[in-house]
Amino acid sequence: EPGLDLVHLVSTRFALFAAPTNRAESVCERWRASLIEHYGGNPDPQQYLPQCEPDGEFSPVQCYGESTYCWCVDQEGREIDGTRSHDAVKPTFNPSCLF
């Protein structure tokens, strides 16, 4: 995207994440980076890492690694009660996850 400078890239087996220089690192991005460091830089595919949107906000659907064990979160990353799912397909969108 034009005008976006990348200050850092964090690469894992299942995610590539970049933060633009024109804003501070978000809570989601800081939590994600902290967990990647905690996991020794190489999280297991089943370990939880917060999923962040390009603008740094929490993605509404969160999942344990590559599993289909997923749930919805609010804008602060807190789980929304009653939204946990073990569906056979990892959701990309869940209407229950709308803020």
TrEMBL record:
InterPro entries attached to this UniProt entry: Dev_reg/Prot_inhib, Thyroglobulin_1, Thyroglobulin_1_sf
Q: Where in the cell is it found?
A: Secreted
Sorted alphabetically, which keywords does the UniProt record give? Disulfide bond, Repeat, Secreted
Report domain Thyroglobulin type-1 positions: 25-97
Q: Which residues form the signal peptide?
A: none
Q: Origin, by domain of life?
A: Eukaryota
Q: What is an example of a Pfam family matching this protein?
A: Thyroglobulin_1
The chain's disulfide connectivity reads C63-C70
GO CC, sorted alphabetically, is: basement membrane; extracellular space
User: Tell me, which GO biological process terms does this entry list?
Assistant: cell-matrix adhesion
UniProt-recorded name of the protein: Thyroglobulin type-1 domain-containing protein
Organism of this sequence: Xiphophorus couchianus
